[in-house]
Structures are given as C-alpha cells and as structure tokens.
Amino acid sequence: MTAPDFDELYRGETQLGGMPRIPWDIGEPQPLVVELEAAGEFRGAVLDAGCGLGENALFLAGRGYDVTGIDGSPTAIERVRTKAAELGLDARFAVAEATRLDGFDGRFDTVLDSALYHCLTIEQQREYAATLHRVTRPGATLHLLCLAERLGAELGPMVITPENLRGTFGEGWHITRLERRGYTTSVMPENLMPEPPPEAPKISLDDRGRFLMPIWQLAATRA
C-alpha cells in the first residue's frame, strides 16, 4: 500500500480512509507517551521522530526535556513551531527525512516514534534503525509505537509483526519490551466497519469513545 501524502493531510487537502480528522491528531499528547514519561522512561536529549503536529514533543518540552522534533511535512513543522512559540517552550523542530537525519549524529539519549515506523517500507525501516543508531548515544532508549493490525480503517500502510521488529532492531539494539497496547486515536466507531463480520476482532474504545488502535509498544536500548 502506498503511504499517503502527509503534507496534503496536514494542509487539509485530502483525508485518510475518508475520516474527517487525521487519526493520530488527538489534540493532546498520546496517553502512552504520558505514561512513559510518568514512569521516568525519558531522559536527556529527546528526539521525536515523525512528530507531526507536535503534541508529544510539546508535552515533553513542557516537562523540561531537551526536545527536537522532526517531520517530513513542512506544514506540520510550521504549525508546531508556531504553537511552541505561543506556549513559550524551548523546543526545536526541523523538516527532515527520518531515514537520514543528517547533522544529528550522536546527539540523543531517548527517541520517541509515535506511529511513524509503520509508514515506512521494509527497506526504509532498516535504514531508519541504522539512522537512529547513528544519531543516538550508547545506552540510549528507543520507544516505538506501531500498528499491529487493521480493523476496517486505513490507519497506516503496513501492519507490523513482532518478527519484523525483532529483525529490524536485532543489530545494534537490545529489545527490552515488546507488548500489545491500545493507541488512542481521533477515530470514532462509525469510521470503522459499520457492520463488522463475526470473525472481526473486538474493537476497543477509550472512556471518551475513541478507537484504541492495536499497536506494538517496543522499547529498546542502543548498544
């Protein structure tokens, strides 16, 4: 499946799967990211890879972390820079290709990937893992959240398997966590299958009625 044009999405010129809002744009930090921060799992200089509209990056900056957010969409970066300035937050944002990240070598102690990985091809995923190794310091932590299965909505171009993750991060990284979780989206039940077949997996919603996308939550330590 071809990945969408993310800059068109952020400009509002196209929709993903006919949904009125970008699924990962929930207007607040991802609850799983808030949970990780509360558990003390971010430290030092933080890279938010594929930061989008920056709710996670701005949340972490507001908690005192040294945050750099990168995204391939100029529109998203322009919007998050404006918001950071309005909030008086000292965070950096750049338009950059996640599989290259030129000029960032050896800079980061923590990486957050909140729903970027599954938008990459297999070849790009391997390049991405090598790039993250290059831009992080020894002992750095990677937190990666990626699509585990699709339930009637085109929420990402690729469903990721545990074997994929173990293969991609099998060299230069030590996986310390690989769990199934629910990722909060802006998707409401009516955007999914109106009449799911009997064999369809059960759809999980949060306490506000938003679809919890099935994901893998991976944590890995850089060798």
Helix content: 25-40%
SSE string: HHEHEHEEHEHEE
Mean pLDDT across residues = 91
Kindly provide the radius of gyration, computed on alpha-carbon positions and rounded to a whole number of angstroms: 17 Å
Structural class: alpha/beta
**What's the CATH topology label?**
Rossmann fold
Widest sheet: strand ordering: 3-2-1-4-5-7-6
CATH architecture label name? 3-Layer(aba) Sandwich
The total count of helices amounts to: 6
Query: Cα distance, first to last residue?
Result: 33 Å
CATH homologous superfamily heading: Vaccinia Virus protein VP39
The biggest beta sheet is recorded as:
7 strands, mixed
Q: What is the C-level CATH assignment?
A: Alpha Beta
Contiguous low-pLDDT stretches (5 residues minimum) are none
General shape: globular
Description of the structure:
The structure is a single chain. The protein is globular, with a radius of gyration of 17 Å. It has 223 residues and is α/β, with parallel strands linked by helices. The chain starts with 5 loop residues before the first helix and ends with a strand. Strand 4 (108-114), helix 5 (122-135) and strand 5 form a beta-alpha-beta unit. The protein has helices at 6-11, 31-38, 55-62, 74-87, 122-135, 162-168, and strands at residues 45-49, 66-71, 92-95, 108-114, 136-147, 173-184, 212-222. The model has no long low-confidence stretch (mean pLDDT 91). The longest helix is centred in the middle third of the chain and has 14 residues, at 74-87. The chain is built from 6 helices and 7 strands. 26% of the residues lie in helices and 26% in strands. Strands 3-2-1-4-5-7-6 form a 7-stranded mixed beta sheet, with helices on both faces. It has one domain: Vaccinia Virus protein VP39 (Rossmann fold, 3-Layer(aba) Sandwich).
